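Bit of a strange request maybe. I'm writing a small parser for structure token strings and I need a real example to test against, not something I typed by hand. Could someone generate the tokens for this chain?
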Amino acid sequence: MSTERGYKMRTVCELTGLSPALLRAWERRHGLLQPERTAGGHRLYTDDDLKVLRSVQEHMERGLSIGEIAVMGRRSLLAAVRPSPPGVQDAGGLAQCRARLVQAAIDIDASQVEEVLDQAFGMASPITAIDAVLAPALDEIGEQWANGRLSVAGEHLVSAKVITRIRRLLEATNQGPGRPAVVTCLPDELHEIGALLAAYALCLSGFRVSYLGAAMPLEDLERACVRIRPAVVSISSVRTPILQTHLPRLAELVARRQEVRFLVGGRGAVPLADELGEHGLEYFSTGSFKELVDGLSELVG
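Reply from user aminoacidic:
Good idea to test on real output. This should exercise your parser:
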């Protein structure tokens, strides 16, 4: 929440999609942020701090590293920040983005997809953009494809663009210290958007994430656990039959790596929620992305 003096760290994380560890690192190493302090020593970020963060994210979108951006200095970043577009976080504007994204999939229009994603992330925080635009648009695109009104090409086009955006958010946030976590999908599971969102949510919860992608062989996942020594392994499941097939071997892995918490989420895990617990796996339900972030923070906090 915001106060009369400024914004608490949790609020800034929600508005920007950046992790607490990253905010502290950019303040300490690069001097980009100048939060005030409460009597208890807690940071309160200013409007100028939020503007700096927005400017940093815009420069990162153009491909600059944080080191290159830091050389510009806080004053230059404040001068370079673009005015907020009209209707920031406006529900009607986000609904239009959602409808346009679906239409761009129908039209197989790559430039329109990019334009809509730019607009959505320019209008709202990453969390809000994901919940109000990306997630419902992807659901509708899936329904349109199932009903024969949208081609596989259109669905794949939008999915690829969304994956690229989430990867950028993950790369921008997944910096600095934090407890190690591994995020992946089961063998034969090729749908990775849910896994990427889980990885991003864990970053926002203060973890340093090793994202291993789709279709990960279980023997290689175990090797990664030996090498990385994660506190948490998060597995995304979209297709229940795939989870059923690999559950016995996954349970064996869990039994061998009892120092690691294994979480399983996604719609493919819903029918097996009780069975997962019997095998030492923790099921976490996912509603909105904000609920995912809050839920993971509580679950592994």
